[in-house]
Design brief:
The chain is α+β, with helices and mostly antiparallel strands and 451 residues long. The chain contains ten helices and 18 strands. A hairpin with a 2-residue loop joins β12 and β13. Bound molecules: oxidized coenzyme A. Oxidized coenzyme A binds next to α8, β12, α9 and β15.
């Protein structure tokens, strides 16, 4: 028995073999399920009989004329009606049509006198309906074919599931001994349709294949209050999501010993405040980052629009995340490499104040080449900051803490600053990220280089 005309498709996937050796089959019983890029289709038996050998398995690829199985025709069948049984020469005449999956029962040979047309129609019929009624296949998690073939369901339910694109392997059967029923399949499809109605998030690219987050009516569980996101939150939310989705993020962690840095800062603090400067650890961190970026210029670069070239920037504009009542903003200290430690501290104070009071100008948020997100004033031991794309790296800073460090045969208390460097793995290799963060930690522990 051979694969019939399947509408010109070649190397089509066999996604299910519905029969086995020794099995008695009736005429029109589904033998195998094929899936083209347009539709799934069963190949029904053109005659009744006993299968002597199945010649295909799930995962094989077939075209018209491929051998499906060897069949011993049922005694009652007139021999002339079985030229397709292991008889390639006669296969074409008696070859079954591939019926449209959603056109009900397979048509008889008489009802489908032009098999060559039947298969393409199956594809054309199914595709638009799937697009109109159900989430497109690409937007749903792929069907686990192995689980599908192992699912406890009758051939008719399998066929029904194929017609609707339901994932049989993920359905819990409610029938006898856990058998999956037609109602179980319907229930899954209904759930899929409900989730397909969920609007895509505002930042989702058109045609995005991202699975959707379920929509929940929270009010059914208790009292709720709905408040709109701030304008800044909406803008930064979309940018953060775009970066998270488009850039392969990896975060490298390291602790910097800032014991001496803190001693120096304490010594400078009163002098600084006399000059109207609040000297926080962040000013030193900005300075150390510039030295590290100069040593490893790739971290100060960006991919160009083609994604095939790196644009190395010869200027060092350091952005820093600022927490404001209206949400996260990133002011930029332009040409920070030309500023002294005090000037950096001053710029940090001025820009953070403007950020908090909503007075930042657009020009004060543009042109960043590297960003620092410092949560050290609040707490925490480490986190994974999201890269401020199209930059390629961001430094997360957590709260410094006294930790026992093993030095020359004894544990000594040292003030350690946790650093978390997220980087775009398309541009930066893990080894380079480790080198960068180790260099940065060394620079922070050698305070003389920063003054
Ligand atoms: N470890 C220990 N203490 C730290 C520290 C650290 N890593 N960093 C700052 N501190 C201390 C400061 O020294 C200061 O202490 P004193 O007042 O005793 O001197 C205190 O914490 C508060 O510092 P600060 O936050 O006012 O100043 P800053 O320069 O460290 O930070 C700014 C400025 C704007 C970065 C910060 O105010 C801010 O907004 N941080 C939040 C950033 C953020 O939201 N990031 C997440 C973005 S992603 O959602």
């Amino acid at each position: 028995m051979l694969v019939p005309d399947i509408g010109g498709f070649k190397d089509v996937d066999v996604i299910d073999v519905l029969v086995k050796d020794g099995q008695q089959i009736e005429k029109e019983a589904p033998l195998i399920t094929l899936e083209t890029e347009k539709a799934a289709m069963d190949v029904p038996a053109p005659a009744a009989g006993k299968i002597t050998q199945v010649k295909l398995k799930t995962g094989d690829k077939v075209s018209e004329g491929s051998l499906i199985l060897m069949l011993e025709p049922a005694a009652a069948s007139p021999p002339a009606a079985k030229p397709d049984v292991a008889a390639p020469g006669g296969a074409r005449n008696a070859a079954p049509t591939a019926p449209p999956r959603n056109n009900g029962p397979a048509p008889s040979a008489a009802a489908s006198p032009r098999p060559a047309e039947a298969a393409p129609r199956a594809a054309a019929d199914v595709a638009p309906r799937a697009a109109a009624d159900v989430t497109p296949r690409a937007a749903r998690p792929p069907i686990d074919e192995q689980a599908f073939s192992k699912a406890h369901a009758s051939p008719s339910v399998r066929k029904f599931a194929r017609e609707l694109g339901a994932d049989l392997g993920s359905i819990k059967g409610t029938g006898v001994k856990g058998r999956i029923t037609q109602d179980d399949v319907k229930a899954q499809v209904k759930a899929l349709l409900a989730s397909a109605r969920v609007a895509p998030p505002p930042s989702a690219a058109p045609g995005s294949a991202l699975p959707k987050v379920p929509v929940v009516d929270f009010a059914q569980f208790g009292e709720v209050e709905v408040k709109p996101l701030s304008r800044i939150q909406k803008i930064s939310g979309a940018r953060l999501q775009a970066s998270w989705i488009n850039l392969p993020h990896v975060t490298q962690h390291e602790d910097a010993d800032i014991t001496e840095l803190e001693d120096a800062r304490a010594a400078l603090k009163s002098k600084a405040s006399r000059e109207g400067v609040k000297l926080t650890p962040l000013a030193f961190i900005v300075k150390a980052c510039i030295l590290s970026l100069q040593e490893y210029p790739r971290f100060n670069a960006s991919l160009d629009a083609s994604g095939e070239n790196l644009v190395y920037k010869k200027y060092f504009n350091i952005g820093f995340a600022a927490d404001t009542p209206n949400g996260l903003v990133v002011p930029v200290i332009s040409n920070a490499d030309r500023l002294s430690l005090y000037d950096i501290a001053r710029a940090l104070a001025v820009l953070s104040e403007k950020a908090r009071t909503g007075k930042l100008k657009a020009a004060e948020m543009h042109g960043g080449t590297f960003t620092i997100s410092s949560l050290g004033g609040i707490g925490g031991t480490s986190f994974t900051p999201i890269i401020n794309a199209p930059e390629v790296a961001i430094l997360g800073v957590s709260r410094s803490a006294q930790k026992p460090v093993y030095e020359r045969g004894a544990f000594v208390p040292r003030l350690m600053l946790p650093l978390s460097l997220s980087y775009d793995h398309r541009v930066i290799d893990g080894a380079d990220a480790a080198r960068f963060v180790v260099f940065l930690a060394k620079t922070l522990s050698d305070v003389k280089a920063l003054l």
